[in-house]
Amino acid sequence: MKRHIHIARHVVFGALCVLGIALTASAQNIAVRGETVHTMAGEVIRDGIVIVRDGKIVSVGPAATTAVPPGMRMLEAVVVTPGLIDAHSTVGLTGILNQKQDQDQFDHSSPMQPELRAIDAYNAQDELVGWLQSFGITTVHTGHAPGELISGQTIIVKTRGNTVTDALVKDNVAVAATLTGAARKSGGKSPGTRGKMISMLRAELIKAQEYKAKLARYQDKIDNGGDGDEAGDDEGEPPVPPKRDLRMETLVDVLNGSVALMVTADKAQDIASVLRLKDEFEITVWLDGAAEAHVMIDKIKAADVPVIVHPAMARAFGDRENLSMETAGKLADVGIFIALQSGYEGYVPKVRVVLFEAGVAAANGLGFDRALRAITIDAARLLGIDEQVGSLEAGKDGDIALYDGDPFEYASHCIGVVIDGVVVSEGSN
Amino acid sequence: MRRSVRWALVAASAVMMTGGALGANATAFVGAKLLPIDGPEIERGVLVIEDGRITAVGAEGQVAIPGDAARIDMRGKVIMPGLVDTHSHVGGVGAADGSGPIQPGVRIYDSINVRNSGFKRAVAGGLTTLNVMPGSGHLCSGQTAYLKMRFANTPGTIDDILVRDKDGHAMGGLKMANGTNSQGKPPFPETRGKSAFLVREQYIKAQEYAASKARAVNEDGSVDESKMPARDLNMEALVEVLEGKRVVHHHTHRHDDIMTVIRLSQEFGFRVVLHHVSEGNRVANEIAEADVPVSAIIVDSPGGKLEARYLLLATPGIMEKAGVRVALHSDDWITDCRLFLRMAAIAHRAGMSRAGALRSVTLTGAEILDMGDRVGSLTVGKDADLAILDGDPLSVYSKVIETWVEGVQVFDRSDPTDYLYAVGGYGAGHDQDPYLCCYDHEQGMQILQGGAN
Q1: Which of the two ends of chain A, N or C, has the fewest CB atoms closer than 10 A to its terminal CB?
Q2: CATH number of the domain at A84-205+242-389, out of 3.20.20.140, 3.40.1190.20, 3.30.70.270, 3.40.50.720?
Q3: What is the reported pLDDT for A192?
Q4: What is the mean pLDDT of chain A?
Q5: What pairing do the DSSP bridges indicate for beta strands A260-265 and A307-309?
Q6: Cβ count near B99 (within 10 Å)
Q7: Ranges of chain A with pLDDT below 50
Q8: Does B269 touch chain A (CB under 8 A)?
Q9: Would you call A98 an interface residue with chain B, using a CB distance cutoff of 8 Å?
């Protein structure tokens, strides 16, 4: 027994040593020098330097005027950008094998399950997370996929970390809803039609309004010493909270605006439905996919709804048969707020690389600057994480991507990725 | 409109040609950067085409332009051979059905819709020659068709786009598959061993069929009809394969499946092209040793199916270095053939030489389709099949601005209708339901779109 304890002590000591090394690595101080630095906050810097200390950016400026403190590890690249942000993916839930056991993007037992949390499903160690990281993508908005009327919740993660806890940036970011053919059912099951989809969504949101009212009445009683003016209110009895309901709690978050309703809709009439839902319930709506947004530009602009545009290389069939590679550019031209995404794929490629999609969008009307914004600072703003990531500015996370040329060029390589000040990828990808 | 005029001109010139007016039918593309593929790039070149063929290629000033040739100023542009896609599913195609795993007698060209917008996308991507194939849900799903995109203002019928050999026969290969896609419930095989057995059994039957046909021929060359076996379309196709007249285009991903294809091709002596070869990097030396060409694909991430679990962007480059002849294919709809050049560029990004990458979507593909003497390079005597770009073909920012087939312009990016198909938009995707090899249509669409049931 004593011997075991002795060994155990050694093991603990050994573990601490390993941990010590790991901590040193994570605390690494890094200077990244780029011939061109796209800070996404002000002018592009020619021959710039980004200094990262303890995981955070401490300074950004021209090499000529930015002192590099001694002992810093220096990385160099032709082009430096903030770590890229994929505004909508399903990576980590849609595993690489595409077999039943690694597909957690939707549960088909019920068409509306906003109560399903992405945090309980995200596999931080799926190889495809590392795949995205290797091209400079450091932050991903991921979760339940389009494919059920309401498939569940989403989260924002960094593309590093052994567990979802390590990776998590923000929990319960959006509730994912789908108004495409993928969520319509045959064989007498609901929802079987477009009309039924909207009636089911509205009914559920109205139920949530009622639940919210109950919560408010309860809170009111608490605030007034249990002496509300509700009929049947017993004087002196402690107020009873409404029975907990995970589905309703999530939808109340949506009604309160703390969680967005991200609706995947591609056909023009479905995009119109999304805009109507926003008006009726006064909720925060993100239009996702939006293959026919190019024929709904005025309406989307008037509704002031941001659009997470489908991948530029998405396949044109089904609800997306009228998609265009130029949609992102056309929406941006009129000032509609856009971000870009890798989206969801049921087959191959199991995950798209938002850098590649942005490159094709850039070449088809969006242009370099707006395409880069759409996968950095604008994606961060849409997702509400722009205080933390999305640009190279002092105080933000040390998330940096390094390239040996124009990041969008087919033949360029991602030659380094830094997340929270840790060099997580090198080589030539 | 512009193109109808050009058609008319071509037709008129053709008439004049018969009258012996040499050069009257010629067009000279002047000042473009030329990528001949079978020779070094020419910075400022002249390309002359006449009567649907290339008649001169060279540096500006060193090529004689016929005096009456139409001159097109191509300064700032890049001209390369029309692209050859060795594996495509455009055209709303379908060959073998669910009744059995081996159906070599079924021809894909009996199913092709020439008005399918997939062909519009193909020319928008600079593609001029396609091998349109049935899918991989069968051990053998039927005969493939080699097509030239001879569309201008209106498509005619399938006969207008078939490639014919010198005897007038429609050219094509035979599609086969191993690995997981072609497995299923009986009569489909459930294992790899059974898959190979079923294939070997049919080839042995074909050997016997050929032998019995040979026995029906007397020594003096006359045929003894009483001995002649009844016609069997399946056997006839397999005999063409055994005789080397029809190439096997074989879907195969995993390293061991690749080796099985090579083993069977050696046992029966058939010519084969290895398609997809996601794990070709793992047996690159063995493929080179067997001297079997490949037609590889790159998708943007590994996985999505077990066979593509270990897919690498670097595999085409690794095979190239091992000495394998490497073509690429779009597998449209798997990847969009409008972006076929992108695949070559990504292969280059991941280690393939620039010359090898450009050859993989042109001349190597042509050779794989037994058309190396007709298309795939800017060579005098070859078909005037051209992809004209506004920049380097391996840049994301470059666009195909014109596509020509046999001397006729079939795509013009400045034409609004052509432009619609080039970038997408309302009406561009009609008839574009993906071709689902291994699922019934409804099930497959659900899987692709992520739906229920």
Answers
A1: N
A2: 3.20.20.140
A3: 96
A4: 92
A5: unpaired
A6: 8
A7: 1-25, 27, 228
A8: no
A9: yes
